[in-house]
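Sequence, please.
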């Protein structure tokens, strides 16, 4: 199997213009998401006490502090991960995938080596599992690392050269991490990921697999239609829900909020783990491209990508009257949302487990996915709805 090399040329230009990373529109539509925004450690958790910080579009692990790792707060299963790294003369680090929150990450998951001098498992190797073809990397220079993980198959490329093909069944799902070694400085940038294995849940022809749910209080029930591969809705309130149910998953979809003028920002949302035939139940990932005081970091009504009633979006990335891509990851109590590849929310439900989110209960059981028609001014289009179920942690 040949790895796709095209993302390298495009992704490596992300930081040329500014430290705040932005994905090209085409890459966002293909499902790529940024794990590092170029400015902060949002979406990451430091484990073990090492010192990490963001500066100038680079995620830096300082020499100070004990061994440890910086991990994503969102777990993943099958994906293509690409990043750049820069190390010193005797640089020793690594990339962890499918690792558990607790325990040694190279034991609960896999470590992909960054250490040219290791006698058995040099850079690109799956440590303690499969050695890579040896490559010599110049210190102080940026190098590209690509890992493809699909079921029990793994491929690694360094600077576009394939160095590893391996199989191992141990770990199916977990966090992605960056290794911190005491006394070693390591730098990473352009950390992006594309989930694999997503399947379509809207065929672009009709509403098979979906059910309409109206409410008696709607003076004008929503009108759902399919034309030209788009799922269109006007009026409301109401919802369109999947007939299948899902608990842990990654969902990607394209959305266009059709505004009638500068003061109109269509309001909608994507409901998760809803109760079948129950109006607006479960968690809601908001759709509303509006903000205050000309400041995109001040969303109105939680903003597009915010977890409604729980966490506002940290920035409004999308605009009305143009398609944007939303990625929603749900795993247990954790919810995260990306808009056009930029992570805007990262939330863990602290409430006791139950079946009613509105009553401050953490709903972890399977439920429907619903598209919301909010009110009589609703006017939206949806396309490219695709999903993959995730294993349990």
């Amino acid at each position: 199997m040949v790895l796709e090399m095209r993302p390298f040329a495009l992704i490596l230009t992300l930081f040329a213009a500014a430290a705040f990373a932005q994905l090209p529109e085409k890459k966002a539509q293909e499902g790529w998401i940024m794990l590092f925004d170029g400015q902060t450690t949002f979406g990451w958790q430091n484990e073990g006490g090492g010192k990490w910080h963001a500066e100038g579009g680079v995620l830096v692990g300082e020499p100070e502090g004990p061994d440890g790792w910086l991990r994503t707060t969102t777990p993943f299963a099958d994906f293509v991960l690409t990043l750049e790294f820069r190390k010193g003369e005797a640089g020793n680090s690594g990339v962890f995938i499918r690792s558990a929150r607790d325990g040694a990450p190279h034991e609960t998951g896999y470590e992909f080596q960054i250490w040219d001098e290791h006698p058995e498992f040099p850079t690109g190797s799956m440590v303690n599992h499969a050695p890579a073809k040896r490559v010599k990397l110049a210190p102080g220079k940026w190098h590209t690392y690509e890992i493809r993980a699909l079921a029990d198959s793994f491929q690694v490329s360094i600077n576009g050269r394939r160095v590893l093909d391996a199989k191992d069944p141990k770990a199916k799902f977990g966090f992605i991490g960056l290794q911190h070694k005491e006394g070693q400085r390591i730098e990473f940038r352009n950390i992006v990921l594309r989930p694999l294995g997503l399947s379509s849940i809207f065929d672009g022809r009709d509403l098979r697999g979906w059910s309409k749910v109206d409410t008696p209080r709607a003076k004008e029930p929503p009108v759902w239609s399919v034309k030209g591969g788009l799922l269109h809705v006007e009026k409301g309130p109401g919802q369109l829900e999947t007939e299948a149910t899902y608990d842990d998953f990654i969902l990607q979809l394209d959305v266009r909020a059709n505004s009638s003028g500068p003061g109109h920002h269509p309001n909608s949302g994507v409901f998760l783990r809803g109760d079948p035939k129950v109006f607006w139940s479960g968690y809601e990932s908001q759709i509303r491209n509006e903000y205050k005081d000309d400041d995109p970091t001040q969303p109105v009504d939680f903003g597009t990508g915010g977890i409604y009633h729980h966490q506002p979006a940290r920035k409004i990335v999308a605009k009305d009257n143009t398609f944007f891509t939303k990625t929603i990851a749900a795993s247990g109590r954790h919810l995260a949302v990306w808009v056009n590849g930029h992570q805007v929310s990262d939330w863990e439900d602290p409430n006791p487990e139950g079946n009613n989110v509105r009553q401050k209960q953490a709903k972890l059981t399977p439920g429907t996915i619903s598209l919301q028609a909010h009110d009589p001014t609703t006017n939206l289009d949806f396309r490219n709805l695709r999903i993959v179920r995730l294993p349990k942690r």
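Residues 158 and 362 are 42 Å apart (CA to CA).
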